Amino acid sequence: MTPSRVVLRAIGVQFPVLDDPTVVELLALREAILWCLGQGLAFVRFEGDAKLVIDKIRRADTGDSRMGVVLEEVVNHFDSNPGFSVRFVGRRNNRVAYLVARKALSVYPTMSRAFNFQAWLISRM
């Protein structure tokens, strides 16, 4: 049996004011991919609860103008890194994702740059 390493990483990333949660989800995934690449990780399974985003990535459907070039960039990362995969995990089956989504929805659309997501997540674990 080969050893495996589990990495759970939640990062507080500040994005300009966005009004589309799917774009925010995609940007967060891109940040996670870039972090994993920077760490030299070759085999990573990304999980998320935004089914629309994950379906588009898995189908390499880059025609969505809302997600634009970011979606294309993410799809290219998955294409060029065969050890990377993405999987949908519903919020009810993932406690951390559920808590994060619930908190995000509670502050949307009044989110401000002052909200410290990382501190909030750590306080819930």
Task: Report what the structure shows.
- The protein has 125 residues and is mainly α.
- The protein has one domain (21-124).
- It has helices at residues 21-38, 51-59, 68-80, 95-107, 117-124; strands at residues 44-48, 84-88.
- The protein has a two-stranded parallel sheet with strand order 1-2.
- The protein is globular, with a radius of gyration of 15 Å.
- 10% of the residues are buried.
- Residues 18-104 form the RNase H type-1 domain.
- InterPro entries: RNase_H-like_dom_plant, RNase_H-like_EbsB-rel, RNaseH_domain, RNaseH_sf.
- It comes from Linum trigynum.
- It holds the Pfam family RVT_3.
List keywords for this structure.
about 120 residues; mainly alpha; two-stranded parallel sheet; 2 strands; globular; RNase H type-1 domain-containing protein; nucleic acid binding
Gist of the model:
InterPro entries: RNase_H-like_dom_plant, RNase_H-like_EbsB-rel, RNaseH_domain, RNaseH_sf. By secondary structure, the protein is mainly alpha-helical. Helix content is 49%, strand content 8%.
Structural class: mainly alpha
Amount of beta strand:
5-15%
Spatial sequence of strands, sheet with the most strands: 1-2
Radius of gyration: 15 Å
Shape: globular
- Structurally, the number of domains stands at 1
Helix fraction by DSSP (H/I, runs of at least 4): 40-55%
End-to-end separation = 30 Å
Pfam family, one: RVT_3
InterPro entries: RNase_H-like_dom_plant, RNase_H-like_EbsB-rel, RNaseH_domain, RNaseH_sf
Organism: Linum trigynum
Protein name: RNase H type-1 domain-containing protein
